[in-house]
Fold these 4 entries.
Entry 1:
Amino acid sequence: MIRKEYTEEYRKRAKELISKMTLEEKVYQLRHPAPAIPRLGIKAYNYWNEAIHGVARSGVATVFPQAIGMAASFDDELIGRVADRISTEGRGKFAAQDEFDDRDIYKGLTFWAPNINIFRDPRWGRGHETYGEDPYLTSRLGVSFVKGIQGNDDRYLKAAACAKHFAVHSGPEAIRHSFDAKASKQDMRETYLPAFKALVQEAGVEAVMGAYNRTNGEPCCGSKTLLIDILRKEWGFDGHVTSDCWAIKDFNEGHNVTKTPAESVALAVNNGCDLNCGDLFAYLLQAVEEGLVTEEKIDHALENVLTTRFKLGLFDDGSANPYSGISYKDVDTDEARKLNLEIASSIVTMLKNDGVLPLCISGNTCTTGKGQNIRTIGVIGPNADSRNALVGNYQGTSSEYVTVLEGIREEAKAAGLRIFASEGCHLYKSKTEGLALDGDRISEVKAVCANSDIVVAVMGLDATLEGEEGDTGNEYGSGDKPNLKFPGLQQEVMDVIAASGKPYILVVLSGSALALDRQADTANAILQGWYPGAQGGRAIARILFGKKAPEGKLPVTFYSEKNTLPDFEDYSMKGRTYRYMTEKPLYPFGYGLSYTTFDEKIDSVNVVSADVRNSGDNGSTGSFDPITFKAGDRLDINVTCSNTGKYDGGVTVQVYVESEVPGAPVRQLKGLKKLHIAAGGSAKTTVTLDGSAFEIFDQNGEAQLNPGTYRVYVGDAQPDARSEELTGKKSAMIEVRI
């Protein structure tokens, strides 16, 4: 994080530069394509750059798994390494583009990532850009991502990260330009704000982007409550705020809180929005003339924006900048591909396995996990050989893509296995060829099944079906899902596969939860592969053939068709996500199976405070006497995790807190540690909880440490009945009395 004295120096230099500008020059520096001012030595710069899972939209770069997939790793350290690689490639590409005087859009160092909105409803199209439904997981991964992007130098930023979209934003996409997201003070503080607060106060995120919609009546990109009262005054944010793209024109065209463009831009700047993605800030000239905004306000906004460019070293010669030596040779390296394969392999989430997996190759023979010899594999589905299904949205261009079909072929080649393949059906249409009858690949599916010893079905979605309003190109239009069903004829194809009697493995490539009730009954194994990035097919094949044990965990709840989804437009958290739903889900948040087994044992629990230290020793049943805890204390939970199976594997130690306080969430994730343990080995770790882990927000949004009994659970899944049913394990529990 940049030291205070350097930030002050940059602000002073920014003020000096601004003092030499005309009002018109100042105004045009506050739009995302900021023009050059040659007389002041200012080069053109475009602030709009994308990098949620790799440098995007500017040519070749490493395409990592989509954000929701990376979240399934439950591994904040790995996310930090990925972000560090993204910013390295961003620096390398910027150096090359700057050398050749290319300062176009998507070619700068201000990355509008990460998206830390809460994925509160599985129908939201942009949910795959996020880290899931839980504010604690989102904050841990988001903090690591920001630190990786921005680097660890105390004078210069490697690149500038941006926390978006502040703050209550998760659909519906079709009405976002006029919608008012109404959230209670409790939900704001308990769910929608914590990740933003963590990125500001822990990671020092350089920029924050407002959302399109209103929140409790105020347009987010001009909200005094959000941008001034909370972000600046309460949290101490010292970076710059940007609007979402063309969001400010919504003030008068969609939200109707202003009457003219001049009023809209004045509202934005007066309430803390510094930079305009779009062109409406040109009306600031008129707004000054009409007395709607002062030139001093414009100066302050520009000071915030230019300070970021100084922090990046864009006005310096580079001699003191440790990142100035990064070049185009650091883009798309073997090291980056290796890291991409590592994270793609870590996110695959196994939801079911009756023993059919893994498929094992020994010499020139291949057997299923049940010992069945196989010589032929059928690979069926619209996502089997799809590059689109690897990458999600806001993606870059990879120099190599490996689809699931290609990955399976690579692994199967050594054993001389025959692969039969069929698209099966179009992703969402009723036929694959325009002049054919509906279901024109069903007979081919039957033929593939008849000639295969085992079938891998690769189904799901891609970013043409779920994504941002305006980006998707299908009959659903807005980018949101109408329901959780597999689109088109995918379900019919899976029914045909199941009816063949052949063992079948379902691989789902999607950025959100789909209804898997029928597959839970008929498939022998289910892998959720997310949008796994350019190396995704290779990673999934490694999982299928036992070269890697699956270790992903669900960052979102997978609902049953029997579950009730609240109204999409209702932003109350009641009934939403694992923290508030009372119905039993199909596959819970935090759940994911492995080829190996783990045992988590609590060794000791220490309460540390200024005047008391209590400890407990683990009994044979894993139970403890109740532990007394008070404000200011710290709870250290010392855990030994043992790999009791036959495969090396990764496991996430998850710590949940349950409270008896009325109105509190059902339970909340409050600690996690990712461990990698060799078969037969063990590892020790400590998970620390402070008082905030036990705080409950009241109706006024005030955090309260309420007296009473709290239950702290430690395991590798939630301590809910469904997780216990699926895993056959119970979490260890500690009672804490406050």
Entry 2:
Amino acid sequence: MLGGLLFGLTAGILCADLFPRVAFTGLALAAGICMFRRAPRLLIVFACFFCLGFALTVLRFNMLPKPVYGEEITVTVASRRLTKQGDGYCAWQGTIIEPRQLAGATVQVYADTYRPGTYTLSGPLLPPVEYRNPGQGWHYKRKICANEIGILRWPRVIHFAGHVPGVLSRVRASFRDNVQANLGDRDSAALALAIVLGDRSLLPESLGSALYRTGVGHIMALSGLHVSILAGIIMTLLRIAGLPRPWAVALCAVLLILFVIFAGPSPSLLRAVLMYFYGAIAVFAGRERQGLTALLWTAAAMLLFNPLWLFDYAFVYSFWATFICLTLGDRLEKHLGFLPEKVAKIASLSVLIQLTALPLNVYLFGQVALWSPLANIVIIPLLPVLAGLAMLAGLPGPVGAATALPGKLLFKGTAEFFLLLNQFPLVLEVGGLHMLLLAGLSVSVLVWLRTGNRRYLVLCMAGLLAVYSLLCAVDSQVCRAWFLDVGQGDAILIRQQGKWILVDCGDARAGESAVVPTLKFLGVRQIDALIISHPHADHCGGLEALAAAIRVDKVFVNSCFVDSPWHELFPRAEVVRTPRVAGPGITVLPPVAGTAGLNDNSLLVSVRRNGIGILCTGDIEEVGELLHLSHLTPHSILKVPHHGSDSSTSARLLAQTQPRAAVVSCGPANKFGFPKPAVLERLEAHGIDIYRTDTAGCVQAIIWPWSEFTIHTFAGR
């Protein structure tokens, strides 16, 4: 019955997010089931909580603020939390007080210095993730559902009023200062604070990357492992002191509440503490070993309180990993019976954590850390010692100082161990449909461990291969074009009959942080044709990052590219002087004789499939448009020239190409003011649907076999 409750609640939440229109049909069906008295009780419970989950989620979504990115905004925020301290900058989080329509939301602020207090800031509001492309969906959703509306980068400070820190703030600051003073070394102090408080503000980028790339990043997210360690330490000390077990359990619960207040609540930490409370009640009631029941009740209670926690991957991972460990831990230990008992327990826990985290890690980071089993076998037994030393290092006086020597040695050694592993990365990069295969393999092994029947493993694998084959067949019959969010620049990825074609690749920063990660997420191993429209930094600045990460077969450029600094990256690039075929249904059009300037010399790219056309126009301006008119044909989708500059997208171009949809690739709050209002008005006057990467993120166009196309945006996926 409890499982039906939780399953119905989760299904309602997901349907409200993924299928809001279709879900109304499910809602009506669920309501009908509830009214049908002869329906099985489990089905009625499912239907009731499906309706409840749907209603609560819709209500929560409607309460979230809906800011417009790229516009100048003036906000008053209160801040007491530093999130990152780097070389020459500080990142801190503030809660909005004014304007009222955004009150309660949080913003991430980047500035030169930081002091706790109340700020009045003015500047353009940027999205909460820098580039909104495939692979960033869950990161973006997590921030939005946590009421984090965006980023302010070096805003103007109109007014500042400091505040006197409260008792809790002073205690936290004192603890942090004591850890740094007692452990001395920056890496050691940063690792200690990350383990015991989840505070990563001091963590150097190199060490943070090493922890994630070796598969032990979970030690920095306060969860059940941390609570069990803390509870174990407290219970041991209280029992040594002679306190009866029930009283020790009760006092431990009080101390855990204080720890949550001190560290700051997070979904995974709250889950672990609530489970402890359920276990404490079970102890007093004489009904112990209620772990699975405690987990299910805790999940239901937390989702009823805030259904949007389901979109927090720390919450999902915490529950999923705990569920797997509770249900399969003993079963896996039996298969490791050839190992000593303690080693078998640690090894089984490590393997289960890896199997559980595999689908999530592949989706979020696009890779599998092959060092992970070894790294976890090392760190999990050490974690109680590290946590205990970190807590003692935060104490003042001789007690904290007494931990200096062992703490320095152990934390420094642990940090060096992970940095060493990271120097020899064993990382398996996975993208595209291969992510489905790897995730399915993980689930299949878990099903086999749960049932003990190899037949289920075979059935799962057969079903997985069937789904994979079907998706591959569908992929070969459609054409997809991703107009990537690269800020102020262009990058268009095209998938046509099994070939990958990339038109431009953004600037240097976007190439490294947006284009390459997106290509890897989508499973691009080789670019069959790279087309550089013209050698401006916002179109080809990302070439160095692309060349270092992805194999490129053919490169097509205009004559101006030969004299650019990027030519040495692809010295054999083909200069397009006559129309060239770059792939199935993909034609590269050269500049027309007589054009002058880099923009008007842009290469044009025409994509055709099933009677639908996509025209990519680089940065041509009105002169270039007029010279191309004689040989341009109608295209259903137009990439608006020159990012929406008012020197382009003439009425004659629109009349000649007859687009039904137009995509503007530009950056939020760009200094040029693109797209210009005159261009948007012209597009609207022609009845053309407008999609913008600055407001909606990545825009994806899909051409179907039945000669129709659909367009999806990152923000409205």
Entry 3:
Amino acid sequence: MSQGGIVRFEDELTLTLCGEAGHGIQSVELLATALLKDSGRYVFSTKEFMSRIRGGSNSTTIRVASRPVDASLYRIDILIPFDRAALDHVRRRLSPETVIFADEDTLTGKEIPGNPVTIPMPFRKTAEELGNVLYTNMVASGFIAGLFSIDEKTLAARVRGMFTGERSSLADVNVEAARKGSESARRLVGAGGIAVEIPGDPAVHDYISINGAEAVGLGALAGGCDFVSSYPMSPSTAVLVFMAEKADQFGVIVEQAEDEISAANMVIGAWYAGARAMVTTSGGGFALMEETVGLAGMLESPLVVHLAQRPGPATGLPTRTEQGDLNLALYSGHGEFPRILLAPGTPLDAIELTQKAFSLADLYQIPVFVLTDQYFIDSSWTIPAPRFGENAPRLRIVETKGDYRRYRLTDEGISPRGVPGWGEGLVVVDSDEHDEEGHITENHGVRVDMVDKRLAKYAAVRQDAQAPELYGPEDYDTLIISWGSTGPIVREALRRIRRPGTSLLHFRQVYPLHPKTPEYLGKARRRVMVEGNATAQFERLLRAETGYGARDRILKYDGLQFTVDELVQKFEELDESEVGK
């Protein structure tokens, strides 16, 4: 904010970078977030981008704070636009409190909306003086470091770390570009025009920077995943890439299949052979995998599916976000058989729930889904380093005897699972209805027994369900409901409005619901659903399963995630609608 002619930022600020694809915005983000973490600040960053390799306008927003932050803001405190089109792209987010640093020709011309503070900075000119306009992003990175008073030795070390091997000859000139950017910022700070007073926290030095894709991948590794297959599709491909990078270190087989059907069927085959396998995909890709989900249901095969949601139908908005595939996962595969749907909202959630997905799939021999979305996968957090147990994941595979029956009827519906080649027994599985030994049958009585056997697992699955998390007073009047990636955003918005009698019920497991869910919902006089789709899919599920729906719905389906500021406004509007009732 502006104080006595000085633009001063205390406690936190949001820094937005915007420009064409191909102009190196991601490089600035990666370097800037690393430097800010080095200085002890907490960092959360998120991005929105168009589905094109070159051109258009993409933006990254970096939230820097003296305390942990895990949600996105709509407002822009500092904007660095790399071209004139960037100003139009983010115009609704600009205000008189926004400070824009840009080349002079970017700032001149037609009036900039929002009446922001504009300060010319020769990013492009400095790069050209060094011999190549491509150095603009490095000048901007150095400028950010200078604003936050990050020392030039740390800056140079980080830049050099980006140029190793065959690219090492580029290190010196990029270090110089960053240094010049840093000098420009330091001169500005020294002249008293701007003050960034966000203190660092020494604890952050022991933290890690992690994005959603890495969190899902770490959870898979912790769960003992040793086989991953996929047909690339944004935004899920980032998980495939992470697992490929770690394949040699952790002994994981990573297969880029020829199509989505093959990718899913490979996972079934891997589990049948004794592996712990996962397929990572997005909505359009998963639509082709539904037959395999039904196959897993009939075979009673474990199956872990990471489904990174994006707007549909068809290709939809391939690089945007939405919580639109809940029903797709919930009702995928024909026939009736159990499944579990998990939905992380933070990186630690993703690590824990993905790890648990493998345990649940193995224990109950059913499909388990991990539902994320583009916002979650492409966002980055500063978090404490996760701790993993030293014990290897438990493998629930039996050595078969001569009288082994793959589908032996049991009270809980779970049969001993053997694998071919380990023991004397014959491990028979079939996509047709089958008897206890796995042989095809059309006996109507056996059919009933087998359906009942598969569905009997639900009793144990429900008892093992993750309980929803309640934030706020237990004697609430109004209950806000969220699931998945919206949770941290809703939580911060509620902290800001401090409305008495209002609590948040957040779901990390969306199916089956925890047995106490009706009790939580029934206590509220007013229920408000917040989710990122057009038809309130989770609200409809709650209504169907518990009889309690939500009269008020806050839905978003423009391809962007909610922001804290946006939800604060929505909640205040809800309060106003209650007046006079």
Entry 4:
Amino acid sequence: MKKKLILLFSFLFFFVMAGQGQAFKTANAKEISLFPQQNAFRNTLNLSGVWKFKKDSLNVGESEKWFNGLRNSRPIAVPGSWNDQFEEFSDYVGKAWYETDTFIPESWKGQRIFIRVGAATYAAKIWINGKPLGLHEGGQMPFAFEINSLIKWHAVNRIAIQVENILKPNRVPTGGDVETKFFHNTPATNYDFFPFSGLNRAVWLYTVPAKTAISDVIVQTGFQGTVGIISVHVKTAGAAETGIVSISGGRDNIRIPFHITAGAGQAILKIPDVRLWSPVDPFLYNVTVSITEDKKIVDQYLVQTGVRTITATNKQVLLNGKPIFLKGFGKHEDFSISGRGTSLPVMIKDFSLLKWIGANSFRTSHYPYDEEYMNMADREGFLIIDEIPAVGLYFHGDTTALKQRQAQCKQDIEELINRDKNHPSVIMWSVANEPFGSATFQVQSASTPDAASGADRGMVCLGELMQLAKKKDPTRLVTFAGVMGGPQKWHTLGDVVCLNRYWGWYVGGGNIPGASTSISNELDAIYKATQKPIMLTEFGADANIPGHTDQPKMYTEEYQRDLIKAYLEVADTKDFVFGMHVWCFADFKTSAASMRPGGMNYKGVFTRDRKPKLSALYLKSRWSNEAKRDSTVRR
């Protein structure tokens, strides 16, 4: 009998432990396909505000059950990075806990209730009322979980989120003891921006109808002559068999019924005298999807979209069938105190400065930005190269880590396209920034150690990522931003070639005429090899010496301005160059390193607090004059 009891106890103990280990659900990318929306059938509650916060540097939070309530906590702002809110957290790498309490409105009964975290860098676990809910890895994308089984009615609900930001070689972006050995910095990133951590974007509670609901809406647009064409694909959960798509905002209100079969339906609508979306006229139509049961609407979702097309020839990128020249910047979500946390006033200021300077585009270097950036770009007419967090990739060394990074990159692409697929501002998916083909940051010739194997592996990995992006969204262009000296054959994979180049700065520093010759020759060579339109997605110089000089010397505003001017003048002579993005929009924080005085990158044409440098004034003069001629086409 005693032996049987021991066996029974052992079984129960194993079952309980196994249950604890498996209790966390893994986030499903499909749950972020539709942003939370308030209407007659759905509800939202933004949990942004001041939360409780506690460091877990000894990694004891789970064993001590901090999810049942944080003791000796301190207040922290959400959204916001933890690094600049507390002095001792500046370079902290480890775990920390967030907690807030909330009531669930009585009116939400009978609906499916979800929590949606806008971004938790880098990995997160969630508990509701002390019970494990779900986990997510990947720091710059949202994730969501249904919470109905864990909530309390007529009582406070405790939400606890553990966030962990450890830098590892197998993560995206890479960090820790990586094999490239180029960056020697603290914290040990393998990329040139600061690893701001925490709950950097808003946390939402939201509902969808329990019985029958819209689970996704995919809007694709085109036109023939003056007639706009909008194709709306609808995915549903539940028993709905019919629906209606309506379009408003233009001259006519258009309604088209559709049938739902096996949880999917489609409607194609034609808009006479369509207004095409562009930087000149960023006109948005309201596309409302309703699904019905017994002729009664049971769920509804609104998407704002612009009718436009984006294609590429062997020399140009065409917006609505006409050449478009991209003028703008790479930039960062970065600001003092808030770090990478969403700051709507900073966002508004940045868009105001982008318009002031005459830009029409930017790249989300080097990670997806908050959805509000996409919404604002839709309304203001900016073109976006939308980039996953795959910066600092390399393809030599540990194949296990390589496979883990590749899996994460694919997850990032799935999540990014699910999130941003309906934004007319997004014209291009970038699957990586400056991936390395070899173990060192140098010209990667056949004699470079690991160059051949790294280049071949990179060809396969980047090819898989671009194919995945194309499969999920065949309506946009795909690319990656190539590093100096990177394998040229990689650029045959994308629709267009994007290059980051620093002749006159990291190579041939101080020699602007030499930089002009080098970039001109390289552009010609790459175009000859690829026969694809080329864009410089990064070029520039640091400017952090106060005052001005009579001769442009490195680190002065004069040198930065003149180097940018030289690159733009070279681009003017190349009919296959379709865009120039200066690196970068504003100065930003980096890890501490000898090449980054004060832990800052000073390549911004604006200071970190958004004051213009000489290069900003030069670009405003140049781009404003071009806009007077034609704000859509360069010449």
